[in-house]
Amino acid sequence: MRNSQTQRFKLPPLATLPAFASAARTGSLTLTAREMNLTPGAISRQIKALEDALGVLLFHRSHNAISLTEIGRQYLTHVSAALATIENGTRALQPDRARLVIQAPITLARRWLIPRLGSYRHENPNVDLIIESLALGATGVPDVVITYRRGTAEADFPSAFLLDRSIAVCSPLLISGSGSHVQPQDLLDLPLLLDTADAWSWQRWCGAAQMAFKPRGGSIAFDTDEASIDACISGLGIGQASPALIERALREGQLVALCPGVNPIVGAYEISIAAGTPASVAFNEWLSGWRETVGEQ
């Protein structure tokens, strides 16, 4: 006698779907791991478990990246729609909560924004924050975008919340003592760390010190100021940064200021896009409060 009970369709492991969707969007297990606060190995295992359950290959894998197969692209359409439905349904159960997506340069986010977010959360406990780094290729739809713009005068930035006044710094491993005996021209005999290929900040700094930018000790160029700061802390050379971005490193003695009287404005951080939602307006107002203390940073 045939069993008339209908066999239930077996779903794949649902906990693996967010990792699949994120990996499809970023094309990187490392970025997905950062986004989900897991290890790349954990993300890889989740995706493999999903593929095993489905019996199909969802990604092409290479040494440095992953990309969707044709079946993976088809499946992503359904998974993305399902996750969006769940997210919207969950938010409907919490109508008093808001969501704010902030995109910002990685150095500002890591070294300035995150240490101050406690005060924002205290003032806005009903807002869920998503912080995305522009340097890591943020792809979400932002409510607020913070950008950096070059300039040499405070008047160039009437709406900036943080001026970038660049000072020369180095690890105490590189220069003995406090560095108070060092003169501006002495720095050109040491390796200089550049946070841009055109040495914008160092050009402005040397101009403020009334000398030409002619590094005699060589240089190392990076594509982000975050990398330049890390190299400076490691003792690779003389770096430059806004005191507001390295306040902890200065406070804990990882870095020492050199010739602190030479501190030209080289740019500023400002909001370039704001969605106009209540949450984004409140965030802008919160940043404006910090603008009043720019001179104290």
Which terms would index this structure?
five-stranded mixed sheet; 10 helices; D-Maltodextrin-Binding Protein, domain 2; 297 residues; Arc Repressor Mutant, subunit A; 3 domains; three-stranded antiparallel sheet; disordered C terminus; 12 strands; disordered N terminus; alpha/beta
Explain this structure.
- By secondary structure, this protein is of the alpha/beta class.
- A five-stranded mixed beta sheet has the order 4-3-5-12-6. Strands 10-7-11 form a three-stranded antiparallel beta sheet, with helices on both faces. The chain has a two-stranded antiparallel sheet with strand order 1-2.
- Helix content is 39%, strand content 19%.
User: If you consult CATH, what is the topology of the largest domain?
Assistant: D-Maltodextrin-Binding Protein, domain 2
- pLDDT under 50 segments (min length 5)? 1-6, 292-297
Structural class assignment: alpha/beta
Radius of gyration (CA) equals 24 Å
What's the number of helices?
Answer: 10
CATH architecture of the largest domain: 3-Layer(aba) Sandwich
Principal-axes geometry comes out as globular
State the helical fraction. 25-40%
Domain count: 3
Beta-strand percentage?
Answer: 15-25%
Strand line-up of the largest beta sheet: 4-3-5-12-6
Q: Averaging pLDDT over every residue, what do you get? A: 87
Protein name: Glycine cleavage system transcriptional activator
GO molecular function: DNA binding; DNA-binding transcription factor activity
Domain HTH lysR-type: 12-69
Family: Belongs to the LysR transcriptional regulatory family.
